[in-house]
Amino acid sequence: MTIADAPPAAAAAADAAVRWHAGAPFDLLQSLGTLMRGNGDPSFAARPDGLWMAFTTPEGPATLRLTAAGTGTDTHVDAQAWGPGAGPAVAGVPRLLGADDDWSAFDEPAFHGTLPRLVTEARRRNPAVRLPSTGRVVDSLVPTILEQKVTTIEARRGYRYLMYGYGTPAPGPLTPPGLLVAPTPAQWLAIPSWAWHKAGVGPQRSATVMRALRSAVALERLAALDAGQAGAKLQTIPGIGIWTAAEVVQRTHGCPDSVSVGDYHLASYVGYALTGRKTDDAGMLALLEPWRGHRQRVVRMLGLSGFRKPAFGPRMTIQDHRRH
Q1: pTM for the full predicted model
Q2: Average confidence (pLDDT) over 143-163
Q3: Euclidean distance between CA atoms 308 and 324, whole angstroms
């Protein structure tokens, strides 16, 4: 995998630009889709002219556009960035795109042969998937906390409400309309209690966000640790448990092994996919144990396999607090 300067035409249109050579098949949307909080995430825009995203760097906000071209080992991604944080945004592109995500051990015949057919078939059909690493802990942590103990629909609706109210327009002359940079830690901390209520975020979750972001500088330092250490330190913050920590390091570190224990649906999904029967968290971990070190890769492939577990049982009630 190598990095080369972007073509002059691309570089001239942006504050910073680079071309990343994948050296293997690579699917941009499939790899980075796990970072989006639904199709309506205001910090992302998937358009014909590329995948756009906006975020804050240590040097300020940035807008990043990614476009993939080529096939097989000739696949490359052109990255252009605008704004005060354009330089750091471009510098982080290789890691963001999964340059450090090595599937070679997973794909070794000896290991591959131990995997369930459902997983091996999904991997065969999806050889271009990588696990991305953003390195941005706060950006991953806040929406993950909002997803604690509520439905995904409710959490993402609340996140959009807060983004539209307190996010800032993404920089750059070509930025898609409505693309927003998530609030900085100081901006999150300044959100009044009534706004959290309007967003459908209860006091327990909003208090967890506030508690965590009072140590925002220390949080961002966790990106330099390995995923295990980072996850353990996250769990020292009251209100952040194993599920939240796993969901964060999956995105910030591209962790190939973290499992979202405590997820409302995951354990039963894995159980049905691998055994045809529902299971709990302990049962899920037992099923995945033979592939320790790659358990998140296995879960990712199950998700891409097209398998759907039986749909029955009570549904969680979605609360709407926007008019309260």
Answers
A1: 0.92
A2: 96
A3: 36
Q: In what side-by-side order are the strands of the sheet with 50-57?
A: 2-4, 16-21, 76-82, 60-69, 50-57, 44-47
CA proximity to 202, closest of 246, 234, 154: 154
Characterise 18 by phi-psi region: left (phi > 0), alpha (psi -120 to 50), beta (else). beta
Token pair of 122 as six digits: 């999904």
Asked if residue 260 has pLDDT above 60, the reply is: yes
Greatest C-alpha distance within the chain: 58
H or E segment to which residue 95 belongs: helix 93-96
Tell me: pLDDT of 61 over 50. yes
CA distance 51 to 72: 20
The residue to which tokens 């599937």 are assigned: 103
- Contact at 8 Å (CB) between 156 and 121? no
Q: Determine the pLDDT at residue 310.
A: 85
Q: Contact, 106 vs 294, CB < 8 A?
A: yes
Token representation of residue 313? 């049982």
What CA–CA distance (Å, rounded) separates 99 from 93?
9
Q: How far apart are CA 173 and CA 44, in angstroms?
A: 16
Nearest Cα residue to 255 out of 144, 101, 99: 101
Mean pLDDT for all residues in the chain: 92
Weakest mean pLDDT among 6-10, 56-60, 169-173, 232-236: 6-10
